[in-house]
Amino acid sequence: MCDFPRFAVLTIGSGGFLGSTVRDITLANALHQRGYAVSVYWMLETSGELVDDGIGQRMLCHGSRYHFRRPSLLLDRGLGPLLFLVPKARRVATVQRSAGYVHRLLEHLIGAQFGPRGEPDLARRLARYLKRDCITHLLLSFASLGPLALQARRHGGHAFDYLVTFQGDEQFAQYARTAGVFPAFRDGVNTALRASRWPAVAVSSDYVDRLVEELSLPRAAMQVVYNGVDLAATAAAPFAMLQQAFPGLREEVPIVLYLGRQDVEKGIDLLLYAVRLLAARQVPLQLVVCGSTALGQGYRNVLAAMGTHLGLQFHHGGAVSHALRQALYAHSHCVVYPSINREPFGLVVAEAMGQGTPVLVPDYGGVGEVIRDRKKAGGLTFRTWDSGDLARQLERLLSDRVLHATLARDARSVAQRFSVDAMTQGVLAHMQLAARPLAPGREALHVT
């Protein structure tokens, strides 16, 4: 007899969806900390280091499955486990050296999911996992995985409900276009929405608008539940930690920080142009750019070359530890999020405000919702794609002490809307489930 409810999270562990993975595992951990039984099912890659002890993990399929346009069971179940004997850092580095390989895997995945037959063997495997783990509630990281869940449910033998979340599906829609299956993609997502017991979760109101405009989805089929991040106050690390990671940083000069994926849609080149404009005006600042990359080193190399061409000496790093991340937030004058994409949310923005650091974001997409709560704001906006306006707004943050102090004061208050508890309770309420408190004797251990 299954306990009720029992959750499983189905997520794609590819680095291109790192923010989505963090959100999903944060939710899984929060549910587990409240005493629910939780499992995590991975596709393509894993980030098992983010998962709390006591949460079961299964590999639904390896990235090797989609090496060719037609999914390969042999490469998935035979080669995949062997490749996973290689340390993850080495696997990821190897993939990133092959330009476009991750795009190819994801295009093949979507092409297979929305092909004439779908992926019956994968759906059967998912159905077996759900039955084995006695899952009653399947949480899908992406609405694009809805047809897979629906196909698994049609196999019968185990009853479960599923909830879909929209948080990066516009990228999958683009893969569907390049794979030539966009009409099937749009129809399949709509069918999966109708077959779910609940409306889909979308991570911002603007994202709902975008999905209605671009995918012709019914507005009534979606409801906003904002993402949650760890807002726990931490003692500021010594500035020496930053100097060790970024030699030459000076404590007396304001730090402007970009922290996040270094991929082309993040618009970091716009920030370089803006900083060059401010250098011409002799506005003192130090630029730090750091974070992982999902799609290869090409864009990082372009940024380095662009900095040299512009005569900029900026501090350029890769992925950072949680401790260094918190130290960067604590010692930065502001965080800039210059994305050229119509971002659904913006976890880094919420995290920075949670530490009392003002932010600067484009006036486009769901990220603009993150910085405001009624009359309070934790940052400023600039005109999207406009490096000149980005420079003007950045100069305001650097030169207007009263404005900066006001934004810093209000940032923590604004960020409270995006706590892990708020997200968890929002998802549970959405599914008409009672919110449990933390299990006795347990502390919240949020993903970072």
Automatic annotation (TrEMBL):
It comes from the Bacteria. The keyword Transferase applies. Coiled coil: none annotated. The keyword Transcription does not apply. Keywords: Transferase. Residues 247-412 form the Glycosyl transferase family domain. CDD domains: GT4_PimA-like (cd03801). InterPro entries: Glyco_trans_1. Gene3D superfamilies: Glycogen Phosphorylase B. One of its GO terms (molecular function) is glycosyltransferase activity. Pfam families: Glycos_transf_1 (PF00534). This is Glycosyltransferase involved in cell wall biosynthesis.
